[in-house]
Structures are given as C-alpha cells and as structure tokens.
C-alpha cells in the first residue's frame, strides 16, 4: 500500500500575497516543498514558527477522491 498523501493549498496560507499553489505528496514532501516555496515566493524565513504555520494548513487527501479507473 502506498504512503497516504496529504495536500497543502497555498490559498490558505496567510501571507498577503495571493497564491494558488497546490502541493500534494507525503507529509514530509509537502512540508519541505511548502517551506522552499514560502521562502522563495513569499519572502518568509525558514523558522520553526513558519514550519508550524505551514504544517497547520496540511490536510489529509480524501481516499479515493482521485481514483478514476
Ligand atoms: Zn504560495
């Protein structure tokens, strides 16, 4: 069984700059990508506080939601 995926929708990240990025993957992948994105695009600093904020917008992907066989 594949690792369960989660997603983060950057529209829910309170940064002031409108952004529609959508990241999906394992929790570690999503968090790492969000951090890189927030630093590069939103001018944030990679701090425990930022990671806490990013972690709070990560949500479980609904099982079967994308299963069109
Ligand atoms: Zn963004």
Q: Which ligands accompany this protein? A: zinc ion
What is the succession of H and E elements? EEHHE
- The shape is globular
Helix content: 25-40%
Number of strands: 3
Biggest sheet, spatial arrangement of strands: 2-1-3
Number of helices: 2
Low-pLDDT sequence parts: none
Structural class: alpha+beta
How many structural units, i.e. domains? 1
Q: First CA to last CA: what distance?
A: 17 Å
* Rg over alpha carbons: 13 Å
Biggest sheet character: 3 strands, antiparallel
- Report strand %: 15-25%
Average pLDDT level: 88
Q: What do these coordinates show?
A:
There is one protein chain. This protein is of the alpha+beta class. It has one domain (6-60). Helices cover 36% and strands 16% of the residues. It is built from two helices and three strands, in the order ββααβ. A three-stranded antiparallel β-sheet has the order 2-1-3. It is globular and about 35 Å long. Bound molecules: zinc ion. The site of zinc ion (ZN) has 7 residues, from helix 1.
């Amino acid at each position: 069984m594949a690792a369960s995926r989660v997603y983060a929708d950057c529209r829910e990240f309170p940064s002031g700059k409108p952004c529609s990025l959508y990241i999906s993957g394992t929790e570690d992948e999503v968090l790492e990508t969000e951090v890189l994105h927030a630093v590069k695009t939103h001018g944030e600093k990679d701090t425990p506080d930022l990671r806490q904020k990013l972690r709070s917008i990560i949500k479980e992907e609904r099982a079967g939601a994308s299963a069109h066989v």
